[in-house]
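G., the chain you wanted modeled:
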Amino acid sequence: MKRKFRPMEAVMRLVFFICGFIAIAFVLFISVYLIISGLPAIREIGLREFLFGTEWASTASEPKFGILPFILTSVYGTCGAIILGVPVGFMTAVFLAKIAPPKLAAVVRPAVDLLAGIPSVVYGLIGMMVLVPAVREAFDLPDGASLFCAIIVLAVMILPSIISVSETALKAVPPEYEEASLALGATHIETVFRVSVPASSSGIAAAVVLGIGRAIGEAMAIIMVSGNVANMPSLFASVRFLTTAVSSEMAYASGLQRQALYSIALVLFVFIMIINVVLNTLLKRKKE
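Predicted structure as tokens:
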């Protein structure tokens, strides 16, 4: 019987190897392409002027390509979305995995899945038609499109990823851990937050990483609610993110302007890689 399954095992190993190789090859291809396309503009503009310049005027007679406003806006927007979205998503995951009655969880879980399936343009449309006017009226602003609206929209958009992955991680905790805690006299809530949550911390951290990636990489919804103006970031001012800077100008860009947009994409790619490396390093140290 063992010999009968060996050819199939060899085929499956080859299939898995090819799939893994394709994934790595795509990452390498994207990395090399962005480096080759983005470095020429950085060399011509100057690294310091490009990263720390405060003015972006790519179509002016004397163009300027400072992306510091875009970088700070992306950082502030992502941090704001994480501050708002992670606690809500985490608590919802705990509720669904450990606290909610089965009938209630069966109602809430499909709603979360539906939230994940909504296209980003729909989030942007609802934000533009509902959230932006509400912010304009509530804070007496000339224009409600702002960093604040972008943070709210991003916080809602990252919820499905955080909830789904965190819930899966919490359900994967061996029941023996919780039974031992309850046997020692801990309450159910104490067991959840002192046993189950620490045991599933790596999965919850992975959920946060996915949320950060979704927040920092979103473009369509953000361009509809942020105003898309290259200002230094302010909570109730129109701003432009790194992603929206690329998407809003790439259609008509040429020459140095187009190369600068590739450089912005390279900076965005480096940001995401740094975030992944830092979080994975912290998780590895915690496990050790």
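Strands lie at 56-57, 64-65.

Shout if anything looks off.
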